[in-house]
UniProtKB/TrEMBL annotation:
It comes from the Eukaryota. Keywords: EGF-like domain. It comes from Homalodisca liturata. Pfam families: Dumpy_DPY. Signal peptide: none annotated. Residues 35-74 form the EGF-like domain. SUPFAM superfamilies: DPY module, Growth factor receptor domain. InterPro entries: Dumpy_DPY, EGF, Growth_fac_rcpt_cys_sf. This is EGF-like domain-containing protein.
Amino acid sequence: VVVNHAPQCSCEPGFTGDPFAGCSQIQAIPPTEGPRNPCNPSPCGANAVCKERNGAGSCVCLPEYFGDPYTGCRPECVINSDCDRSKACVNNKCRDPCPGTCGLNAECRVVNHAPSCSCLPGYSGDP
């Protein structure tokens, strides 16, 4: 277009840029990202899993683990001293260590997390 003997340039509809240097097609606006995954990255501590609930991440301890799922969950025990003195830590659980330990006509007592067998009165031998 010429106005008062001077060229007036403009980009065609659907184009943008410097009309004296060159116009380029306007790019379609890409669709916005879908909703953010509140569990990525996970807000949970060790041995916990994140589940999305109403757009927010919710942490829970894995089965057999206890504690605060946001700071870290732990098993019931790792070493014997995590248990009462009458129990032993077996497969990360506080258990009575006596069952199946002593022989016939013997009794079991737990002493400082360990089974101790002794013969019943009137019996002798290897309990």
